[in-house]
Write a structure and sequence with these properties.
The protein is α+β, with helices and mostly antiparallel strands. Helices cover 52% and strands 15% of the residues. The chain has 26 helices and 22 strands. The strands form three sheets. Strands 1, 2, 3, 4, 5, 6, 7, 8, 9, 10 and 11 form an eleven-stranded mixed β-sheet that branches. A hairpin with a 2-residue loop joins strand 7 (229-232) and strand 8. The longest helix has 37 residues, at 385-421.
Length: 870
């Protein structure tokens, strides 16, 4: 385009010369001298330059030409001041990059449609019992209810039942604990599944389909195995197919009852759900996803399903059924409780971007003060205010574009770090990418930032008096007092916003400290844990499970470096508490307590503190109970529970319950989830209970992971068909249980650190610029007798005033805004005085330290040199 324009202008010059030459020849033919003929021709033609400009304005819009000139001039300024440009681009890259990274997470979790066909019509169906304390594990749907919904609901187009658990799959290298989703036949259509190898299971077929990643890792990608039988939990099942790499259906995280850590489903096991006998007391339960028909509301679906459930209850009168039904949009279930933290994080990162804008505006003000003479000269020779302001806007857009491009790299690195370090801290986090919507957001953020950064310098130049600026001569570039006041105000705003973020981060840090404040005696750093399910035909009787656990404890305890070994329940079981010495209660009035089937060495293995009585031993002739402090306080108020007898359930018939005495009380302990509320808990020796899925706990002398390979090899040799999984340190497992809180804290700490850094740079810049402007004044003061200490204190006083103003405004603002963090805090108030004091003191100390550098430089000014410059 530029080449064509130059060619057109060259042709225009040639045409003008040709026209003038012919006109001159005609004038000579009329009798004029050559000089007179040329002058007459030029008078008749008019101003050559004006005609060129008019022609160029026709070919190229003048605004585009001027815009190109402004861009070229901006690039020259960047080359002339590379340090300034680098600082501005780095600041913008930090602000825009962090903002874009958080928006990309918000986009993936909250804005992007579900990976299902007609995802907006998907609903989540659960039944629950509101007559007892809310327990997530009972929010399921029974098989009879599911069949009624599937076969008779006219408001539903597809109904899918599934459950996620660990199953043993025999792979090429042995038995592998596999995360398996047991799904009903409509799952494949609902999820839009198409196999990469083999086929999908047909209706009523006992078959599995593997994820591509699990197929590659467990079966080495051997396509010859597709269509053959594989062993799943000691049963033969057809390996029907393998799903594509891109197939990752969005399923909610497993409920607390499964004790599964978050992760991707590795296999899908097709199941046939059959109606139980009307006399059965037990029944299979599932999670249920359904797709509604078009233009059907959730209220209509719930009304129809309530009617169907009533008919199911009449058909199964002896079946215990949850009385309540809930229908929720599936997208809300997937997001869970992540919506509010994400909005809070997005608001916090916008504060960081605001601080970046304020910082750049302060730098632009200083630069505008230095360019007052340049702007005055341009205005004096005819440039209007709008033309000058456009020049500044183009400069800002150029820098903001560069900052936005670098910011995208920062955002990509930040997103990769989040997904790598905490992939399951937020639902759908692994789906986070830099897509077209994120790119559009980054572009808009860059433009808005450029305009926001240019407001302050533009306003300063708009109010500038051209005559006064020209009268200043060429000697000085001193900023007017109004510009200095504006920069100080901007720095105050920076420090205030930084204080708000640092206070928020400190509140979350203290919350995390409260959560991880382990009680006396509990030392999870030296405890190794692993899980075993004891599933299959060989472990159908409690006696066989107890024998296996006896061998596990014996082999694990014999490993060098293991001090104590114990087991605990992995299944989150709860029972109704029945006291023999209390008045008769209905089943709904009996309190629900958690039942933990453990062993004699469990208390020593995890460091459990005995409050009263004793712990169980291996030599107990009959069942005994140990209870925690919460159970003792709640259900034995004002009395000692030691010696009291409780009924131990022995099957579904309450009449077969076995009396067992309470022999001890232990301190409350969160052993699975640090954020969970302390529940009343009963401990029972596995030799007198019915163990199912268990966790083996081993206290070691050093790092537990050093003995993990030996322990795993010895336990695997006991029964190679039983998979050992989730081998990790107990402290790691506990920290993983608060991954969402850790991610929020990590991001907010990064934001607070970035804000504080920008604030420090801002106050340092203001103080350094002030010292540079006052160099001659300082020289005069020192020539008249001022000491270096006096000069140092004069500059430091100015910085301390700015810091005090910013921190004070920030503290007041934080007191008013910290309440939005209430849902993220644990055991502290949003106005916690200690957190506010530490945060504000930290911001003030950092800012004052930044002020000390220019103050020291001012105290070292040589008055002779300063006065010679004057």
């Amino acid at each position: 385009m530029i080449w064509r324009r130059r060619r057109a202008l060259a042709d225009l010059d040639e045409d003008i010369r040709d026209h003038l030459a012919r006109e001159t020849e005609e004038n000579i033919a009329r009798g004029m001298s050559p000089e007179e003929a040329d002058a007459a021709a030029r008078r008749a033609f008019g101003g050559v330059t004006r005609i060129k400009e008019d022609a160029r304005a026709v070919w190229v819009p003048i605004w585009a030409d001027q815009l190109l000139q402004d861009a070229r001039y901006s690039l020259r300024l960047v080359r002339r001041s590379p340090g300034f440009a680098t600082l501005v681009v780095a600041t913008l890259a930090l602000g825009i990059g962090l903002t874009t990274a958080v928006f990309s997470v918000v986009n993936a979790v909250l804005l992007r449609p579900l990976a299902y066909r007609d995802g907006s019509r998907l609903i989540w169906i659960v039944t629950y019992d509101d007559r007892v304390a809310p327990i997530k594990s009972i929010e399921v749907v029974s098989a009879p209810d599911f069949l009624a919904f599937h076969d008779h609901a006219s408001t539903l187009e597809r109904v899918v039942a599934f459950y996620i658990g660990m199953e043993r799959v025999t792979a090429k290298d042995g038995v592998v604990a596999t995360r398996v989703a047991t799904v009903s036949s409509d799952f494949w259509d609902l999820a839009g599944a198409t196999p990469a190898l083999g086929r999908l299971p047909s209706t009523n077929e006992d078959a599995i389909v593997l994820s591509h990643a699990f197929f590659e890792s467990a079966f080495n990608g051997d396509a010859a195995l597709v269509g053959r039988m594989v062993t799943v939990n000691d049963r033969q099942a057809l390996l029907a197919g393998v799903l594509p790499r891109t197939f990752r259906p969005q399923l909610p995280a497993p409920a607390a009852v499964s004790q599964l850590s978050p992760g991707d489903v590795e296999a899908y096991h097709a199941t046939t759900i059959q109606a139980p006998s009307p006399t059965d007391l037990g029944v299979r339960v599932f999670y249920v996803i359904a797709r509604t028909r078009s233009r059907v509301s959730a209220a209509q679906v719930k009304s129809e399903l309530e009617t169907l459930r009533a008919s199911v209850q009449r058909a199964y009168p002896k079946l215990a059924s949850a009385p309540r039904l809930r229908v929720t949009p599936f997208a809300e279930v997937l997001v869970g409780q992540a919506r509010r933290p994400l909005f809070i994080l997005f608001g916090c990162v916008l504060l960081v971007l605001t601080i970046a804008c304020v910082n750049i505006a302060s730098l632009q003000l200083a630069r505008a003060s230095a360019r007052r003479k340049e702007v005055a000269v341009r205005a004096a020779i005819g440039a209007g205010r709008g033309r000058v302001l456009r020049q500044f806007v183009v400069e800002n857009l150029l820098l903001a574009s560069a900052g936005g491009i670098v910011g995208l790299l920062v955002a990509r690195a930040a997103v990769s770090s989040m997904v790598h370090l905490l992939p399951y801290a937020i639902p759908r986090l692994t789906e986070t990418t830099i897509d077209a919507r994120v790119l559009a957001f980054a572009s808009i953020a860059s433009v808005v930032t450029a305009l926001a950064c240019g407001i302050a310098p533009a306003a300063a130049l708009w109010r500038m008096n051209v005559q006064d600026a020209l009268k200043d001569g060429t000697r000085t570039t001193t900023a007017p007092p109004r510009a200095l006041r504006a920069r100080r105000a901007l720095v105050t705003v920076e420090l205030a916003l930084a204080s708000v973020l640092v206070v928020a981060a400190m509140l979350l840090v203290k919350s995390l400290w409260r959560i991880t404040a382990y009680p006396a005696g509990f030392d999870p750093e030296h405890v190794l844990t692993l899980k075993v399910q004891m599933s299959g035909q060989a472990y159908r009787t409690p006696e066989r499970k107890r024998a296996y656990l006896d061998e596990v404890l014996g082999q694990a305890g014999a490993v060098p470096g293991v001090l104590a070994t114990g087991v605990s329940s992995d299944a989150d079981a709860r029972i109704r508490l029945i006291r023999l010495d209390s008045r008769p209660m209905s089943i709904l009035d009996r309190p629900i307590v958690r039942l933990n089937v453990t062993s004699a060495g469990y208390a020593a293995a995890i460091g459990m503190r005995i409050v009263e009585g004793r712990w169980m031993t291996d030599a107990e002739p009959s069942a005994v109970y140990v209870i925690n402090e919460t159970l003792a306080r709640r259900y034995f108020p004002g009395e000692s529970p030691i010696g009291r007898r409780l009924l131990l359930p022995n099957g579904p018939d309450p009449a077969r319950a076995i009396p067992a005495p309470v022999v001890g009380i232990v301190a409350d302990l969160r052993i699975a989830d640090l954020e969970s509320a302390i529940e009343p808990e009963l401990f029972l020796d596995y030799r007198h209970g019915n163990p199912f899925a268990m966790t083996v706990n081993m206290r070691t002398t050093g790092d537990p992971l050093h003995v993990a390979p030996t322990v795993r090899a010895k336990l695997a040799a006991i029964d190679p068909t039983q998979a050992l999984f989730q081998v990790k340190r107990l402290d790691t497992a506990l920290i993983d249980s608060i991954a969402p809180r850790r991610m929020t804290l990590t991001l907010l700490s990064v934001f607070a650190g970035s804000a504080l850094l920008l604030g420090v740079i801002g106050i340092y810049g203001v103080m350094a610029y002030s010292v540079a402007q006052r160099t001659q004044e300082i020289g005069v003061r020192m020539a008249l007798g001022a000491t270096r200490q006096a000069v140092l204190m004069m500059i430091m006083t100015q910085g301390i005033r700015l810091t005090a103003a910013g921190v004070a405004v920030g503290a007041v603002s934080a007191a008013g805004t910290s309440r939005v963090l209430t849902s993220l805090l644990y055991d502290i108030q949003p106005t916690d005085g200690g957190s506010f004091a530490v945060a504000c003191a930290g911001v003030a100390a950092t800012a004052i330290a930044a002020c000390s550098l220019p103050a020291i430089a001012a105290s070292l000014v040589d008055p002779v040199v300063a006065l010679r410059c004057e």
